[in-house]
Write the structure tokens for this entry.
Amino acid sequence: IVRHPVELLFLLLIGWGAYDTSKVQFNASGPVPGLKNDAYFAGFSNFERHYEVKGANLRNRSFAFGWEHRLKGGGNLYVLSSYLRNQAHTVMNGVPYNYDSVSKTYTGLALNLASLNENGPNSETTREVADVTASFEQRINTVFSFRSAANIYHSHKYLFNAGSGTQYDVLKNTLARGTVAKNLINEDGGGFQADLVAHYKLFNDATD
């Protein structure tokens, strides 16, 4: 991200591949028309793919927008907001172990069950995070400058039928089911930091 760009800059990437994989990314930054002391940043990305397991797919999407304003007296204010969503249907499970329930021993991997969809097409694990960060910088003189920043965020994780089994009983022809989960986990937080920074030369201008 170029801080306070003097001209419009943009990037567009489009890609695709095996397993119906697709990716789109777009970034743009530049001065705000009509406002000589303001600049912006905007970004978007989308990624999606499928797997050999039937019904399994993954989607990642993100957005970001930033605004920078130069204040009188050399100060600088920058605000950036972003959003990320990670969504997986049919949560991927590992290959279960072959288990002998009589001898109570494991006898290898059940490779024939490697592509089995244990959770069904409606299972889901979704994570979302949204945050806002604001930073302020002010040069006091040729030596000292003041910098501060604050951040707030909210995130949650949604689980539905996201458990899977790891033990296949070769004698009973049964697969031990994992814990079935259905819940919503929320989290909020934030932080603040302020610094007084000194920058000066040492050893007869040999180093900063």
User: Anything to note?
Assistant: The first strand starts at residue 9 and ends at 17. The chain has no helices and twelve strands. The chain has a mean pLDDT of 86. The radius of gyration is 26 Å.
